[in-house]
Amino acid sequence: MTREQFxxxxxxxxxxxxxxxxxxxxxxxxxxxxxxxxxLLKAYLHYGTFQGRSSFSTWLLRIGYNCFCDxxxxxxxxxxxxxxxxxxxxxxxxxxxxxxxxxxxxxxxxASEKASVLLFYMEGYSVKEISDILGMPSVTVRxxxxxxxxxxxxxxxxxxx
Amino acid sequence: MKDKEIRxxxxxxxxxxxxxxxxxxxxxxxxxxxxxxxxxxxxxxKEDCIRIVLELxxxxxxxxxxxxxxxxxxxxxxxxxxxxxxxxxxxxxxxLFTFK
Lengths: 161, 100
What we know:
The structure holds 2 protein chains of 2 kinds.
Chain A: H1 3-24, H2 29-45, H3 56-77, H4 84-87, H5 100-106, H6 111-122, H7 127-134, H8 138-160
Chain B: H1 3-13, H2 20-33, H3 42-84, H4 93-98
């Protein structure tokens, strides 16, 4: 793959990557785009490590998830508190920003559960592909999805009322 | 709530990704500012192909040299063995050239 082919490839994949990271960052578009940019540049520089065992999109999302984990780790080290605004359920305030219902629905899930749910329901990846992206066994992904489903059921019933 | 309904909810409420144009423009600008990785360099790929061909031909040459060496060693060993045999064991000149 040449540089131009790589650019063409990431042009089509940047949208699902950014959407996934936007979900992971609870709608913080600035942070999500920052991580997405970091992801794409890392993928470019380490293209030689792509062995083609998984699809290119899976490989890219894996880098994206690792970049997100690095970012979250940094934030925890920086001990930045979660603000009240970040913790607020949008529709309780009467206003529902773009994707707000979704962010509130996945609120309370762990990072890997959130990632599993977003990839499975929003991006339509299979359990096998998600296990490749998150670097964990399929059984763990299934248990994450099972736990997340119970959580979503409660949240979404509340949302429908 | 079924799996299908959860999926529907996610698809209905998935966040919109904005500013794809400026985002990609910036990524492309940064990519062009970076060196081309070896795996993407077409010249490097050609060099790798040439290196592989040269290595293979070198390996072939090595095999030919080894075969010639073995043949030479066998000939020398035979000559030494023959020269060390007792004189009466060797065929006479007459026996050697008359093909009895």
